[in-house]
Amino acid sequence: MKAAGVRPELQELPQMRERLSFLYLERCVIHRQDNAITIQDARGTVHVPAAALSVLLLGPGTKISHRAIELIGDTGVSVLWVGEQGVRFYAHGRSLTHSSLLIEKQAALVSNTRSRLAVARRMYAMRFPGEDVSGLTMQQLRGREGARIRTVYRRMAKQTKVEWTGREFTPQDFEAGSPINKALSAANVCLYGLVHSIVATLGCSPALGFVHAGHDRSFVFDIADLYKAELSIPIAFELAAQNPADIGAATRCAMRDAFAKSHLVERIVKDIRALLLGVAVDGTSQEVEEIEVETLHLWDEKRGGVQSGVNYQRARDDEDFPEDELLEGYGDTAP
């Protein structure tokens, strides 16, 4: 074991697949002892090796020391500040992955009309299992989705005996809505919060959407729409039928419990990777790639990428200097 305060080498850290899943904490104090973080509450103290973590979700009532954050940063753990069970997204530190693969793929796919349409069709196909949407235009897909959601609303209204006159709400005035519309708004905000947390954790851009556009959370809305008919809409109608005194709070608690029960975090991670890595820039399907822990190279307009940390001026001027000789200090950008 390395001495406390000594930053581990990249190759010494466990691979992403070898680490624990997301660790959610609330109402506790987080410190550091050697190379582990300590989690303390009224029941006692638990030690967790920092290198075994992938994502740390800090919920309400958590306090964390500077030394703990230092260790977490050195071991490549992603930290997010969230509401209860991730129902709100407040802020995040570094992303879980050191690779830029996902965001580069996302930017490339969304910048090409053919590949953007291919990803959008995949998103709609996930909502219409067993149906072929490969030949539909975006206008046709939107029409099919609108009909599907209206059907879900009507079915849930009939099932729960909740009066339904349509989705009507004022974003700036939550209390002005009907009970069912308030429940739907609260449920969707919870879903957006969890999705935003995962998008940030994976290093994707929340702004680069395929169906939605022009908003800094466009991709968040894209992904969240995959689960509304399954989670937020049924939960909202069930809560509206119960008519609790504080329907907003009751809905948030119900969504929190549903996230944990349905293992939604794991599903969202898999779905995002499949959507971004399973489509080539020409719109065709491809195998889902593995993401490397850390890759750093220099962009080249002809070769795509060349080795970093090389003094290319010296390599060109001195024939005896091998082009792949590394400078002292990996990634040194000094002239």
Main attributes of the structure:
Four Helix Bundle (Hemerythrin (Met), subunit A); 3 domains; 335 residues; 10 helices; alpha/beta; flat; four-stranded mixed beta sheet; Ribosomal Protein L15, Chain: K, domain 2
General description of the model:
This protein has 335 residues and is an alpha/beta fold. It folds into three domains: 10-82, Ribosomal Protein L15, Chain: K, domain 2; 101-277, Up-down Bundle (Four Helix Bundle (Hemerythrin (Met), subunit A)); 296-335, no CATH class. The chain contains ten helices and ten strands. The chain has a four-stranded mixed beta sheet, with helices on one face. A hairpin with a 6-residue loop joins strand 7 (78-82) and strand 8 (89-92).
